[in-house]
Amino acid sequence: MQETRQHILQILREQGQATVDMIVDALQTDHGKEITAVTVRHHLNVLQQEGLITEPQLRHRSTPGRPQHIYTLTEKARELAPNNYQQLLHHLLHEIERQLPEQSVNVIFEGVADTMAIQARMPNVSFEERLDLAVGYLNQQGYNASWEKGIDGIILHTRNCPYHQLSKTTDVLCAMDMRLMAALTGRTPRRISTISQGEASCAYLIPYEAEK
Which element (helix H / strand E) includes 144? Predict the structure, then answer.
């Protein structure tokens, strides 16, 4: 992203909300930029088109003068900010596995998979239509999924693991995904490759016999 727009997002994160004049002042004072209000408005328009800032809200002054527009970040912009989710999840998973018996841990993550499958709301349709819907849901969750017809059966690919770093330290997430794929497709697949072992995708084979 263009540097000035990154600085504008940073200013809005720090201040919560800001007018054009406030942003100009912060860019000049904190970032050493010689910039005009016209240029800032251009950058704000671009950020708004990208869904990173909200529609400006009119704020009336407490002192004489024209009302000013206030800009704030959208949730999309907040999600782009640095976060500690991966580290937090790593510690949570470690504690769950340390504190609970293996069977209890498995039950928890089976429940997570079942909840995700319920969220997907798979209808009673043909198998191939169900595969298309499953792939659509998985892509919404960041799996980069697709399916194809192979020699021995349908192959469901997920080319991105949303929790790749975490899966390196435990098998429970891979087991969760296996249950999720079964619930989404309505079949019991067999995993034939995994990203965690250096393969290009996690691939699941659903034999043609299972479709009868």
Answer: none
Cα–Cα distance between 78 and 53 in angstroms, integer?
A: 10
From 80, 110, 139, give the residue that closes a domain. 80
Closest CA to 138 of 112, 177, 89: 177
Residues 65 and 106 in one domain: no
pLDDT digits (tens, 9 = 90+) for 70-104: 999 988 887 776 667 778 888 999 999 999 999 99
Residues with Cβ within 8 Å of 117's Cβ and at least 6 positions away in sequence, in order, are 180, 183, 184
Last residue of a domain, one of 47, 80, 113: 80
Are 107 and 189 contained in the same domain? yes
Global pTM value: 0.65
Beta strand 190-193 with 202-207 is antiparallel
